[in-house]
Each structure stands twice: as structure tokens, then as C-alpha cells.
Specification:
It is built from no helices and 25 strands. The protein has a six-stranded parallel beta sheet with strand order 1-4-7-11-15-18, with no helix packed on it. It is an all-beta fold. It is elongated.
Length: 293
């Protein structure tokens, strides 16, 4: 049957290969016992031996294909794939996931993920960042007879469709407990593929609707940046005394703009003025010229 796991945290577990979840199809069965299992909004932190292992022993069905949405793999360690390992014809999918600070303790392992034995992983709108291994040249994903279709994702060097190799997501904090929200400027903001959103009203791990704002591209990773977009509108007409005498003091202002936190005023040479806190008003000592906001 189908397995659904949502809004769970797997922290500091230990096992040989799968500290948190182990997916396996039975080689002796003619039907598949795990079909399109879904894991939503889950966090895998500090697990030893790898957080997840996925394999498909049933070569007749070839359908060990769990789908991960908005999941975070952080600071997990394993000799093969730091975050997870995939074996024997398995075909998992990862959408809007984050792999951060995972470690492959073996030089032959993938920093975040290893894909072996004719398995095929699909990775979309995800972030791989600061994963490590004993070998500096090791990729975030290691291919040991398997493969991965990676698109619209931040990776170390993978260059698939829409990928940003070496991009900086600008996380809020990678110190445990991590805050892997993204901040401007970020290579992840507005860089995802909207066709990967499974349904209208689909939320990120924090409950923010994707995309935000409406009409923009989605962000990569588990979190949608709620302030990303084109920014506030330009202020309109400046109002104030249009016939001020040289040396006099006057107050000028412009309309308040939705989404603007501060306002920057440009003054001509010889003018002085103050705008406490960057508000939409300005007190100045005038000369004869033009000011803009």
C-alpha cells in the first residue's frame, strides 16, 4: 500500500544504512508493497549511518519510488551517501528539498546522496550546500552504477536544466538547530520551475504558498522567501513648497509605498535635510534645484 509521512523530525538516530527510514521492496513478491510513498515536510537531522536507505529488490516490479516534498537532510553522516543511499533499481524523487552539511565518511561516497545499481533519482527545485567528504573533488551526488536527473537545483558542480552550480542560497543559519530559510540575495530565489508545483495552493515547509508573490517563479529548497519578488513600486509625486526661498526650512513628502521599509532621498548640491528612519517625509534647508525620492 501507500505510506505517507508528514511533519516529522528524525533526529540523532543511529543505524547501519538507514537511521530514520528504510524503504525496501521484497524480491520474493509479485506485487509492490511500497508504491509512490510520500514524505512531506520532514526533517532528518544529525543521523549516523545515513538518514534514509531506499532499494528495490523486486526486479519484476521496479517500483520502490518514494517521493520527498519539502524535506531537509541536515548534518547526517554515512560511509556511502551522507544523507541517503539508493540501491537496486529504486526510483525516488526529491522536490523542494535541502541537503545541507551532510558528510560521506568514505572517499567513495556522495557528500549528500549516493545512487547505485541501476537506480534513478529525480531531483527538482532542491538545494545541495556545504556537504563534505574526505575527498575535496567528490560531488554532492555519487553515481555507482546509477544516475540522477537533477534540474532547477543548487549543486556543487552538476549542470542540468536550470541548475545553479556553486550557487549560494544564503541560509539564515546553518548552526544547529538550523534555520534554512533563504534571504536576499540568494541564488535560490525565483530560480525554480513552477511546473514542479504539484497543485494550486501547495505550501512550503513553513506553510507559505508557492510561488510567493503570485505570478513569480518558485524558490528552490524547502522554504519560499515571503519577501521575494520585484520589490516595492517607485514613489510618486513629491509634494511641498514649490516656491521656497533660499535658506528657508521646508518639509517635503511623497506617497507611502506598500512594501517599502525605508525611503532614500536624493538632494542637489548645497541642500541639507533629514529623514529620520528613512520615512517618506523630508525636512530640508532649500536652495534652488530638484529633489527626488
Amino acid at each position: 500500500g501507500n505510506l505517507q509521512i508528514s511533519n516529522c523530525t528524525f533526529n540523532a538516530d543511529s543505524a547501519n544504512g538507514a537511521a530514520a527510514i528504510y524503504f525496501e521492496d521484497d524480491v520474493y513478491q509479485s506485487v509492490d508493497y511500497i508504491v509512490q510513498s510520500s514524505i512531506y515536510n520532514c526533517k532528518f537531522y544529525n543521523n549516523t549511518g545515513g538518514a534514509v536507505l531506499i532499494q528495490d529488490n523486486n526486479t519484476l516490479i521496479l517500483n520502490s519510488s518514494p517521493i520527498f516534498y519539502n524535506c531537509i537532510f541536515y548534518n547526517n553522516t554515512s560511509g556511502s551517501g551522507g544523507g541517503l543511499s539508493i540501491f537496486k533499481h529504486a526510483t525516488p524523487q526529491f522536490h523542494f528539498c535541502v541537503f545541507d552539511k551532510n558528510t560521506a565518511t568514505s572517499s567513495s561516497g556522495g557528500r549528500a546522496m549516493s545512487v547505485y545499481q541501476n537506480s534513478l533519482a529525480t531531483v527538482v527545485n532542491s538545494i545541495f550546500y556545504h556537504n563534505t567528504s574526505p575527498t575535496s573533488g567528490t560531488e554532492d551526488i555519487r553515481f555507482g552504477g546509477g544516475n540522477a536527473n537533477v534540474s532547477y537545483s543548487i549543486t556543487k558542480t552538476i549542470t542540468g536544466t536550470g541548475d545553479v552550480p556553486g550557487g549560494n542560497p544564503n541560509f539564515t543559519s546553518e548552526v544547529y538547530p538550523p534555520d534554512l530559510t533563504i534571504n536576499c540575495p540568494s541564488a535560490a530565489i525565483n530560480a525554480g520551475n513552477n511546473s514542479d508545483v504539484p497543485f494550486s495552493g501547495y505550501n512550503d515547509i513553513a506553510g507559505n504558498v508557492r510561488p510567493m508573490p503570485s505570478g513569480s517563479n518558485v524558490d528552490m529548497g524547502a522554504y519560499e522567501n515571503p519577501t521575494s519578488g520585484s520589490g516595492p513600486n517607485q514613489p510618486g509625486t513629491i509634494t511641498g513648497n514649490t516656491s521656497a526661498c533660499v535658506g528657508s526650512s521646508n518639509v517635503y513628502s511623497t506617497n507611502a509605498v506598500s512594501g517599502a521599509a525605508t525611503y532614500t532621498w536624493t538632494l542637489p548640491s548645497g541642500w541639507t535635510g533629514t529623514s529620520p528612519g528613512g520615512w517618506n517625509g523630508l525636512s530640508i534647508t532649500t536652495s534652488s534645484a530638484t529633489i527626488t525620492a
